[in-house]
């Protein structure tokens, strides 16, 4: 047993993770510790690691001595030397997980810090240095990238300050390869996301909380590659193993993705819907968004406001969403044997679960969220009408409202009679159908309308007649109830309704129909969202009304039957 223990001790490798408390660094540290054959030196600019409850693996490693924490500011070379002295591998990822507008600070951390790391590795005789770069270094915010590979040059465009500085840092790392025995390599993950991410997902959430929540910027069809953070950590470990076995890997750079490109807004919608936000439905051209943001920025500068620019989130999302950015990972698959360990579907689920606390109190979540259908949903029939009036599909609802508004304008606000309006509408329909039929003769490619568009199925006819019969039966039952003269409550309701119609219909019919059109698309939705509150208020109102109705009914004159009975009793008396 003692010999086995000694053999295991010999197999343990020591590494340092600079930026180990950053987004990528945390995932890398945890994966290294889970492998079981690493002693990890976690270093970061924070004075203490401040572990979260979910980091039980790292806490156990600190307790057992398999991990140690070093306070390192990469702007000071001496602190780096203290952390990496005696290790064979250094993983370096800067901790700038969120956007920063301070150029000097970013330059000293990213560029000057990388110079210090490279110099310290050479001085301490470190064998391998792996740098976590970004796919942004070759993107210029102007041209699309489809299946880009490592032969693409740096963009040279200062569209993003951090990306430009990381391009310089990457060049410093690669240029130091095979000097003083140091082998270097760089990875370029694209759109890294996952639990604890502080850039991409907060951008989307901030945009969803703004007035831009309903808009799809660009065509919405632009493909993008995304990379789950654990896959990035796995790629670092694959690179380290390849550098140990094949020197030919050194001095190279590799793109890392999940190998599952998606339309950017599909990815964004999956995340936002998981957090309770509604899917954006209205497309805006990217140039329109940029013009609006430019004007807002001018006003913001003129106002000399010292607050954070509210357009930063929208601008950065627009930069990501308006261009296609997909990359080939064939080189990484071939040379470092990389393949994702977490699929895209699982990655999105894990990310949404980790950000579930952000879904509490969101402005676009349902107030009365429940898997049970609401009362108004049941009244509307749980079908297409309910989906439209309750805004389940906002695009379809808007189109239906627009169509009904046009019909309202045509029949009620045009000043024509109903018959003349109907005749002109039918004439317009016939002209459009004839034009649709004639245009293909002149070489215009228009798809033919199938005969099924003008047919009504037997099922729809049966349902229509069934609905009409139900309405007739209800009306018949109501009439019988009123004719018997015993249900005073129903009588007063019908009388009040007819009296209101008498006041409105002769003079305000157009206004009444317009109000009904607007209210049908608003009241149902509002009630569905705040059902419990409305029911509470309605309960109080109905109880007061019932007491008032009881008082009125009790003061009504008795029927003849009651009078005769009263007389007979009086006669006996």
Automatic annotation (TrEMBL):
Subcellular location per the Swiss-Prot or TrEMBL entry: Endoplasmic reticulum membrane
GO molecular function: oxidoreductase activity, acting on the CH-OH group of donors, NAD or NADP as acceptor
Single GO biological process annotation from the record: steroid biosynthetic process
Transmembrane domains' residue ranges: 398-419, 425-444, 511-527
InterPro entries with a match to the protein in the record: 3Beta_OHSteriod_DH/Estase, Lipid_A_modif_metabolic_enz, NAD(P)-bd_dom_sf, Reticulon
Highest taxon, organism lineage: Eukaryota
Bilayer disposition of the protein: Multi-pass membrane protein
Ranges where the Reticulon domain occurs: 385-573
CC terms in the record's Gene Ontology section: endoplasmic reticulum membrane
Keywords recorded for this protein, A-Z: Endoplasmic reticulum, Membrane, Oxidoreductase, Transmembrane, Transmembrane helix
Family statement drawn from the similarity comment of this UniProt entry: Belongs to the 3-beta-HSD family.
Protein name: Reticulon-like protein
